[in-house]
Amino acid sequence: MPPVPRAHVEPRRSAIVYAALLSRVAEAFRDRIALAERVKDGLTYKDAFDGRDAVTKIAEIIKTTDRNLALLLGRALDAQKFFHDVTYDHRLRDSANELFQFRTALPIEMEGSTGTTATLQRFDSVKYDDVDEVPLPSGVFTLLTDCYSPTCTKDRLCYSIACPRRLEQQARLNLQPQPGLKRTLSRESLGDLVEPGTLWIHSVSQEVADSISDLEKKRQEAINEVMYTERDFVRDMEYLRDQWIKPLSIRDIIPESRRMDFVTQVFWNVHEIIAVNTKLRDALTKRQKQRVIVDSIGDVLLETVPFFEPFVKYGSHQLYGKYEFEKEKNSNPTFSHFVDEVERLPESRKLELNGYLTKPTTRLARYPLLLEVCLKYTPDDHPDKLALPKAIKIVREFLSRVNIESGKTENRFNLLQLDQQLVFRPGEAEDLRLRDENRELIYKGPLKRSQSDNSDIELFLFDHALLVVKSKTKHEQYKVLRKPIPLELLLISPTAEDPSLTRGTANRPKPGLITKQNANSRPPPGMHPLAPIPSTKPDPKGGFPITFIHLGRKGYTLTLWANTYISRKKWIDSIVKQQEVLRERSSIFEPWTITSGFFTGLNRVNCAAPLNCRTIAELLMYRSRSTDSLWTDDGVYFSDLRDLAREPVKMLALMDVTQVDVLEEHQLLIVLSERAVITFPLEALDARDPSAGLKLAKRVSSHTSFFKAGMCLGRMLVCVVKASALSTTIKTLEPIDQQRQERNKPTFKKRLQGGNDTLRVFKEFYIPVESSSIHFMRTKLCVGCTKGFEIVDLETLDAQGLLDPNDTSLDFLQKREGVRPMAIYRVDSEFLLCYEDFAFYINKNGWRSRPNWIIHWEGTPTSFALHYPYVLAFEPTFIEIRHIHTGLMAQVIPGTNLSCLFADTPPSTNTAAVRYHNHRPYGGGPSISRPPMLYNNTYALQPQAPFYRRDPYLRDEIILTMDDRVVGLRLANTPLPSVSDAASSTAVSFTSYASTTTVR
Questions:
Q1: CA–CA gap between residue 76 and residue 279 (Å, rounded)
Q2: How far apart are CA 370 and CA 364, in angstroms?
Q3: Mean pLDDT, to the nearest integer, of 767-790?
Q4: Which tens digit of pLDDT belongs to each residue from 270-292?
Q5: Cβ of 439: how many Cβ atoms within 10 Å?
Q6: What's the pTM?
Q7: Beta strands 422-423 and 478-480, pairing class
Q8: Domains of the chain, earliest start first
Q9: According to the model, what pLDDT value does residue 928 have?
């Protein structure tokens, strides 16, 4: 006989923890097992894991390939209720179809009251210093213990015949070839004993069984299973009634003052379920007794399943029942003793009360499975072929409602618990509104500050914000580490560095609405525009980084690390998906592309002004085909909104153009070029020769800081501002009547030399402070300067401060230095003042009209716009949109390199608005007015005809830049501009000098 070959024995890998100590294994298992939302039999379970994953993870922890050994160790943890089957029916199984959850700690020591609302009130009163943590299992798993002898090694046999290493040592020495430890495992140790049900084939005679086909036998077995499981379910509910509800109602186990409330909260409407299912059980039993071979059950089910509403009612309250039970068990020794006694009764079948409390919902989930088996073996011409699908559909509808209602309950319960557990730093407390009825916890999980950091950072993704906290303390509390991030102000990037420092250029979309089709090349919402595609490979430092960027003045950048690519992807996908939900829900405005990729590099757009001019449209049709004139020189360009695919056309070759405006009724183009205000007749512009218009140019002013055109005193006025650090000179001009010019038409030679003046002086005045903006009121000018807003009477040239210094509610503003006034809007009889940091209302006397109303901007706005009933604040990384009456955030539009080019607000009979305007023309300001048919408010008390009449002075466009794109902002779900639109073209200027600055 040939010698037995020496088996190769690999060195035993050292376990992550000492595998014999259950507490060590339990802690490692809890830290490593992945929890997720799982579905079993149509019911949804949160924070669950399946049996196969559990056995695999335990095997990894103890470094073994023997899954039976890992299963035994897992059952040792299960036996101490460290985790449990979601239905409490059986112990740990090595199956992907079986789901398990960890036992959770619940608050204790609360005073009782009545009703579900009272349950929440009791929960709210919890002091978490009294919360008991879930204890880790304790004990020694002897199969994995090491020898206590100091001389015992793996390669040298110990003196003791009971050494736990002996079998392994024998295997290493190849005294007997075997793959590992030799154990004899009973069937009961690895597989749960199955209670045999009464098979139909055993309940009938052999003659009856032989008289039907095999298909019919399977059908009868399926029907029989429906019937006997229904009897079992009713028996279980009667067990709750007889062994729990009745004794607790009459015996002195619970104090009498809260006895009935406790019974109601724990067992809720079990009596209703017993009534409904007793009727179904009796009907099925009666049908079974009529004939040995049951013909049909569909009609019986259709008479009963429509009345399964008690299951929904029970499922929505089940979590509160578990909470009351656990709380009472932990705080009442008499009740705890009663629980132990009842659970030892033979009627309990070794199943704890929680197992019976879950049976109503699990029974509802089993109906579709049982009935589908019946349907599978039912002939096509049988009445049940139509009846059973109807019954299944009805049950699934109830099951769906149970999932929804129980999900709402669990979500609210967890949020209330979390709200009690949060601990903010002193002075940083913030109301996350976790008690709101519609608040939702989307996802939660741990991340790490760094790969070398062993402590986990817990993240909670709500439907409105992201919260970063430190993992639980011994009192089950969370310490808030950073300011919560509103999802509208959150950008994420799968890099370990600030993506704003990354160089790169995204693919350019085609002109038109920014839709999903032409935005495929861009990152999804919430992803940083310059963020690279997430890699499936770990970072060189180890792990998978996620960078969270909080936009705004109080923002920050935080990089955390996920252990796996799947974990990082789950976080990114969850955040992006919820941000998309928020955007669709609050979509008031949406951008659409006017031109993209044309103004790149140093050639950037500074300003814009819309106009409706047939002459310009005709000129665009004959534009030069030469590409040189489009790219080499800077100047004034025109873009045709009727044909967004066409590139902008250069109409004037000018240097350093920082501002442009169009007085369309006077056919006049005003340009601020190299600090000089120049006017051009629109008819002199020639797309084929950008220098042709220069021949009819008229210089109005030099050394100009900025200019502003608007209506005041019923006149069209142009204010030319020369500002210095100590003073400001403002020259107010008005266009010269063109008809009078026609009567005094100059000679052709004189026209070529410059011709008549286009603007004449109306008023000129001086202010002894630096000014940064001009705002037109009905009869007065409002000047924004370093002292605040100043009102100037153009008839008397008297000036006074807008705010009354006697108003003590304005002390917060008067005592601050360097507060920058930026915009003022008239809303009904009030004025909305917008500053760089905040906004508030005043009345016509300069007193604050709403003392408790104020907006604190999330960002640092560089310009504003008004589109009733919303005010828009533009900052380089996002547009902040708020409701002007509530002050609440209505929408956030993120972007990069954002700059408002033009915004104007047409006045109505009760709402006149003026806007901020800086060195770069319409670099800040108002917007368009929303047609009254789109909203219904008590402020629109007078006729709204001006909203529909297009006044030549009113332009309702909002134009801005995003990266290298010029885009318009429009109300969501409104059509793009067409040939018939009133605004048919837009004048755009740009400069190649990046040093152009805005007056601060």
A1: 42
A2: 11
A3: 90
A4: 999 999 999 999 999 999 999 88
A5: 18
A6: 0.71
A7: parallel
A8: 22-190 (1.10.10.10), 200-418 (1.20.900.10), 430-585 (2.30.29.30), 592-991 (2.130.10.10)
A9: 33
